[in-house]
């Protein structure tokens, strides 16, 4: 299990304390992973926790963060356990508004959210209690896995044309941290080495 959180300054030794009770976070582990990438305003801190019991609820608290109340995560079941479980998959997190997608779209776009429609974040929050694992949603309460998409490659999403001013934009409009999967590669820590993968891919 890897715990990740962001800070506005680099931490020399990111540390997470954890335990099986919110009042007894008696085990602490540290790492030297506190990194940033071009144009990012924060540092990503990642600490791996080993030696956890299977199918167990743990409480944890990153040190040097704004959090004062412990978060929770539940470890995976033993290999071979046939108990059914649920997975939520978020294809697009939504980029605008406090809770994700907005209720309006630009000229020529289709399918805006209606007044009673839930965006991706709202839908997943509503289902959270019934979900064991999340793919792509960043959360403090459930294990997650990320997958790269079009916005991780570059910010222009294949090119943009301003028809009013007859200007076609390309990847040159993107800040360095928004190109070549830079943010994706530096912000997340998937168990690639343990599973035979490469970085977060």
Automatic annotation (TrEMBL):
Pfam family, one: Pur_ac_phosph_N
Gene Ontology MF terms: acid phosphatase activity; metal ion binding
Record InterPro entries: Metallo-depent_PP-like, PAPs-like, PAPs_N, Purple_acid_Pase-like_N
Domain Purple acid phosphatase N-terminal: 1-75
Source superkingdom: Eukaryota
Keywords: Signal
Keyword Signal among UniProt keywords: yes
Keyword set includes Signal: yes
Name used for this protein in its record: Purple acid phosphatase N-terminal domain-containing protein
Source organism of the structure: Neosartorya fischeri (strain ATCC 1020 / DSM 3700 / CBS 544.65 / FGSC A1164 / JCM 1740 / NRRL 181 / WB 181)
């Amino acid at each position: 299990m890897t715990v990740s959180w962001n800070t506005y300054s680099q931490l020399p030794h990111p540390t997470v304390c954890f335990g099986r009770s919110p009042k007894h976070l008696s085990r602490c582990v540290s790492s030297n992973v506190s990194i940033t990438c071009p144009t990012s305003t924060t540092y990503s801190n990642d600490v791996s926790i080993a030696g956890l019991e299977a199918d167990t609820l743990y409480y944890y608290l990153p040190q040097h963060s704004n959090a004062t109340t412990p978060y929770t995560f539940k470890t995976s079941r033993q290999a071979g356990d046939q108990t059914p479980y649920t997975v939520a998959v978020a294809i697009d997190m939504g980029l605008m508004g406090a809770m994700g997608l907005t209720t309006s779209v630009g000229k020529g776009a289709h399918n805006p959210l209606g007044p009673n429609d839930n965006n991706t974040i709202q839908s997943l929050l509503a289902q959270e209690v019934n979900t064991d694992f999340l793919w792509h949603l960043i959360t403090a309460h459930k294990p997650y896995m990320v997958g790269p998409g079009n916005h991780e490659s570059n910010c222009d999403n294949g090119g943009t044309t301003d028809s009013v001013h007859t200007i076609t934009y390309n990847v040159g409009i993107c800040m360095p941290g928004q190109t070549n999967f830079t943010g994706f590669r530096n912000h997340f820590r998937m168990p690639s080495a343990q599973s035979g993968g490469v970085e977060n891919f």
